[in-house]
Each structure stands twice: as structure tokens, then as C-alpha cells.
Amino acid sequence: MTAPIIKIDAISKSFGTFTVLDGLSMQVMPGEKLALIGPSGSGKTTILRILMTLERIDGGHIEIEGEQLYHMPKNGGLAPADERHLTRMRQKIGMVFQLFNLFPHMCVLDNVTLAPMLTKGTPRAGAEKRAMELLDMVGMSAKAKAMPAQLSGGQKQRVAIARALALSPKIMLFDEVTSALDPELVEEVLNVMRKLAAETDMTMLLVTHEMGFAHDFADRVLFFDRGKIVEEGRPDEIFKFPKQERTQTFLRKIIAAGHRV
Amino acid sequence: MEWDWNFVWQIMPTLLQGVKITILATLLGSVLAAIVGLGIALLRRSPNRIVSRTTGFVAEFIRGTPLLVQLYFIFYVLPDIGILLPPLLAGVIGLGLHYGTYTAEVYRAGIDNVPRGQWEAAKACNLSASQTWTRIIMPQAIPPMIPALANYFIAMFKETPLLSAITVLELMNQAKSVANTYYRYIEPITLVGAFFLAISLVSVVLLRFLEHRYGRIER
Question: Which of A238, B39, B48, B100 might form a disulfide with A221, Cβ 3.0–4.6 angstroms?
């Protein structure tokens, strides 16, 4: 029996008086492709942001590969993690954002090489070689010298995926990566992700409103509502035969809004 | 009173000496203001409340008191506690500190204008705090604020006559001494105005160019 790569144990998170997550627990196995679906404000994006350490948790524990994310061992007990611990843990995790967040003052190639050169001390030549391979994989090697402002949304997002991959994370987080794209540009990004899923054994967590893609892509689908996992299962079970009423209502609304399943 | 061109040519070398000092004071004051402003802006963002509050208070204090009073303080009061500064240095420090509190606001706005997603992307790329500042945030924050900074430097330039109060031999002071020697004010003071106007106009053209070049950033 392999150990889970992500183990979330009773975490809670509030923004002011609004409780987003309340004692949430879940586990992800190595290599698993997980789709997190659910209405806005249900906490699915917050989970990704917590895993990327963009938000702190108010309570609970998270383990990545058996190591505490927000805590570190100290005097036989656990102390809050310091910046050095977080930096080490972040190496295991990469994230792609809804709004791409490319660095606008650098060309595509520099966007991809920056982090390996700064955080791992990779020499420029090696970082550029690897970056060109990654850009090739996402179909963007021809635009290596372009500035982000010259790219379409779909192209930006493919570069952002290459940038996240450049640090060779074990876990990739995709936060509504096609939500900000024009409809005709969605497919080129999804194709890259399909390829990634097929060619690597990376663990992937995906927050999405693309139900059709979630169905094809994921090994397991989690339906979130108000910070809780209402239902989980294989894509077929969730999309074809949802058991919970809230899941059924949500999927009906999504289909009515024109999303494919 | 008649305008006397011969007198103009006679005093010109002295006034040009003053112009040199005025420009030097402005340039050094601008560099100092740029550095002080960045320092204040960064300290005000410190997570340590005591540091950020104290910096905010000091900046507010400097901004709320006249530059002339500050110059007197630096040049005439500090010697009482053993800090004796040459006039030009005292003037540059006064200008730099005073305008630093204004440029700090420019830095603050520039830094705040960098979208939150850039900070988050930097974190997702596992950059350290200093790498995030130097590689991601400042390169995006500084170009759009160059026109606003240049505006303050031009304003500072026009305030340099205040340095005459602490015996700096800048343009205004030279003109006054010439005038007091020959009892003629019309030529020296008119020339002071003309020099300031000429340099300001050139600066404004330069400022327009900077606005065009750096005013916006493509995303």
C-alpha cells in the first residue's frame, strides 16, 4: 500500500467571519489526477491556494510526502513552519493560475528559466535547454523570445504551464486555468494538460468548471459545497449517477449554463 | 532703470557658477530623495508594527514642516550636538530628506499597482523575498513611476533658492551677492528667473519623453 502524497487533516480556514473550510480532510495518492468541482465560494480554490502556501490555515495539518507543510518538528513537538521550511516544501509543488500571472517584463524564455536559475542555481545554458524542451511540449518554442503582452490568453497559459513545470514539481495545481480564456482558446490549453497527464506521473489537482474535461482527465472527482466534500468518486459515478441531491442540482445548473459534460 | 547688457556679461560668469551649484544640488538631492523614498516605502511595509508606524510618523513629520526650517535645523542647530556639515552637503541632505517623504508616496503607489498575482506567481516559483522584490516587483513598479519621480525632481530644482539661506553659493545666492555689490537688482534677478525657466522648460520636454517611454507597462 503506497502512502498518500497529500494528506489533509481537519484543516480550517476563515476570511474574517466567513468560514471557507471547516475541518476538511482528504488524501491524494501519488500520480492521481483529481478534479475539484463545485459552486463558487465552496472552498475548492482555497485548497489549492493553501497547498501553494498562498494562504495560511487557521487549524489542522497538511502532510506532503509524509512531511508537515505548515509545521516543523521542534523539541519533540510541532512548531509553525518558518520561511526556510516553507521554501523547501514549496519545491514539491507548482501552480498554474486563472489569470496566468506571467512576468510581463520578461520574455517567454526568461519567464521559464528564472525560477530554476534563482532557486536551484541551474546554469543559464542548462535552464534554457530545459525551458526550450518544455516550451516545445506546450507548443510555444517558436515564441521563446516574445513578450507576454504579445501572446493570446491560451498562449500565455501554455507558457505558464511550462514555467510551473520548469521546477519539476511532484504536485501540480491548476486553478481554473481556462476560465479567463476566450472559448476558442480553451482547447489548446486542455490539450497540453491531457498530454501532461499522459506523459508524466505527476500528481495533479484541478479546479475547473469544464465538466467534460474533468470527466476525461480525472481519476477521481470531488464535489465541494460550503467547504465540505459532499460527494466523491470516479468521474462516471459523479457525472452520470450523482447520489447527492446537491451534486445533482449543481450539475443540472452547469449543463443549463451551457457547459459540456 | 535701464537694462544694461554690459552688466549682464560682466556678472554672467558668477551666475553660471551658481547655475552649476544649483544643478549639482538638484542632482544629488534627487538621488538622495530616490533612495530615501524607497527606504521609507519599504520600511512602511514592514510587518513589524513599531518599524512601520515609526517610519510613517517621521515621514509625516518631515512632510508637515517647511523645508526652510529643516535646512536651518540641519545647518545651524545640528552643530550644537557636534554635527557640523558643509553648506552644500547640508542642503543636499535637506532636499533629499524632504523630497524623499514625497517620493515615498510615489514608490508606495507604484508598488501597490503591481497586481497581487505577481506576488503569488513569485511565491509559486519559490523565489525568496529579496528575489521577489528585485526581480519581479521593482522592475514592474519603477518604470510607471519615473514620470512622477521626475516631477518631484523638477519641483525640487525650483526650491533650491532656499539653499541660499544656509549660505550655499547657488544661483540665487550668487545673484544676491552680485546685486548687493553693485546695487543693481534688475539684471541678476531677471537672469535667475530666466535660467530657472530655461532649465525647467528643457526638463519638462524630458519629462514628456519619460512619460511617453515609461508611463505605461504592457501586460
Answer: A238
